[in-house]
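Possible regression after last week's pipeline update?

I re-ran a chain I had predicted before the update to compare outputs. Posting the input and the new output here so someone can diff against the archived version. Not blocking, just want to make sure nothing changed silently.
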Amino acid sequence: MDIKLSKRMQAVADMVKEKKVVDIGCDHAFVSIYLAQKFGTERVIAMDVKTGPVEIAKANIANYMLADKIEVRMSNGFDKLSVGEADVAVIAGMGGYLMIDILEAGKEHLEAGINLVLQPQSDIQQVRQYLDYVGYIIEAEDMLIEDGKFYTIIRAVPRGESTVTYSKDDYIYGPVLLEKRHPVLKSYLEIFRDKNLELWDKLRATDSEKSRERMMQLIDELDYNKDIQQRYFGEGVW
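New output (post-update):
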């Protein structure tokens, strides 16, 4: 019986290539189950900080008869993982700053060279900057829309001998997404532009000092958005 994932979780799982996986913040362990069923995966360690998800994860794993391939641990981030037990860490479905905190607390795993598959729900620019700061490069990215929300998935690996450097554009929108001219990123830019133009009209009608300050910010944001669309997608003339 094969498990079926949501579009977002499928995109996360598709980024995993390694044989030994740790799923941090596994929730109900659906990604762990999918990966355990995937050919080539030898072992998955599913970890969550809360009792409820851990118990549900154990029940789901038993239902799919995968207890021999998936070990469940209650753990705050990397706490209950020894260095070298996993080749890749999957961390998905949480805020970017919480994700950075988890990575920073488990820095010995980064120093040992564990690969990362990340799906931050917010503060994606800061996550990319952190990865660069700790010596990781972004090997792959994907972006999708599910239930009207945009999601970004990042696969990062130790820098090694790579001399790649990242720009402001790369931090904000993603070096691989920009390089691929990703169609979902294009949609995101267009929606961002339209929302800011709508906000501009509302602020113009209020005519207060605070609204005028925000309008000045919007001008910078709209100009940058237009520049990105022109340079990477050949569009942006409104």
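Follow-up from reviewer: compared with the archived run. The mean pLDDT is 95. Marking as no regression found.
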